[in-house]
Specification:
There is one protein chain. The protein has helices at residues 2-34, 127-130; strands spanning 42-47, 51-56, 63-64, 73-78, 81-86, 91-92, 101-103, 106-113, 116-122, 145-160, 166-179, 182-186, 197-202, 216-221, 227-231. The model is unreliable at 3-11 (pLDDT under 50). It contains two helices and 15 strands. Strand 8 (106-113) and strand 9 form a beta hairpin. The protein is mostly beta strands. It has three domains: 1-34; 39-130, Tumour Suppressor Smad4, CATH 2.60.200; 133-255, no CATH class.
């Protein structure tokens, strides 16, 4: 009897520890969204034309800003390079980097998607941030934290984004796992060279119903001893569910699961 009571106590303790881990992950997730540099502040996306692109709050500008002077200056796009040529010290804005142009309370960053270069605008007073009303989740369920067998099979897989562009991404292999008595596979990608985590983009039978229609994301640690832990309780909505100015990747056909994954973040209702 003592052994049985001890085992029950240990099981309850492990479950409580896991719930605490998920609760902390959810708090951090929401805090990151609401942060000054979080996705809720993304309030504009402007594709640049070759040559001069004027910016300011005046309606005649190529890039109309929600704050700052009527005419701030210009950004010059020339042969794939974006330079600040007026309104601030001349310098280059490197795409998809930490380079930033500050205009009043706004932050402007250069991004490159395929052959297109644009300016992403972040506004700490964005309506998406002001109207944010919190996230909803399925109840935590440890059965959705699964140990998968990882098969190393490096290759490139095409990933489509919401702009209709397709780019090849590095895929180091696939994870084989079981849910609801069935075997499935997921193919993660590496977000950048030397990535320390695997990134999964997937859809399931809750997509477009309880969860975001375009799919959800989650990460795992790198494989160890041929295994990887997939925690669907940490599945979350892509930035596109919160702002129309994100350029989210979409799940590849291999990652469209014919099963309901009732775990993780539910869809965000605006």
């Amino acid at each position: 009897m003592r052994l049985a009571a001890f085992l029950i106590a240990m099981t309850l303790s492990a479950s409580s520890t896991y719930q605490s881990e998920i609760d902390q992950w959810r708090r951090q997730r929401e805090a990151a969204l609401k942060a000054d540099e979080g996705w809720l502040t993304v309030a504009g996306l402007f594709w640049l034309k070759e040559g001069s692109n004027t910016l300011g709050t005046g309606g005649g500008n190529d890039i109309v800003l929600p704050a700052g002077p009527a005419t701030f200056g210009a950004l010059e796009l020339h042969q794939g390079h974006v330079r600040i040529t007026q309104g601030a010290p001349a310098r280059e804005l490197k795409p998809d980097s930490d380079d930033v142009l500050k205009v009043d309370r706004l932050s402007l960053f250069a991004i490159k998607r395929g052959e297109r270069l644009g300016i992403r605008l972040k506004d700490p007073d964005s309506e998406y941030r002001r109207k944010f009303h919190g996230l909803e989740y399925f109840p935590t369920n440890e059965s959705y934290r699964v140990t998968a067998r990882f098969v190393a099979e490096p290759k490139k897989i095409p990933i489509l984004n919401v702009l209709g562009q397709t780019e090849d991404s590095e895929c180091p292999g696939y994870a084989v796992f079981h849910l609801a008595g069935q075997e499935f596979r997921l193919y993660p990608i590496l977000e950048e060279p030397g990535a320390k985590e695997l990134f999964y983009i997937f859809k399931d039978q809750t997509s477009g119903k309880e969860t975001y229609g375009a799919g959800r994301f989650f990460y795992s640690d790198m494989p160890r001893d041929g295994k990887v832990i997939l925690d669907f309780n940490k599945a979350y909505n892509p930035p596109c569910s919160f702002t129309p100015y994100a350029t989210c990747p979409l799940p590849p056909p291999e990652n469209r699961l014919p099963v309901r994954v009732e775990a993780g973040e539910k869809k965000y209702d605006h």
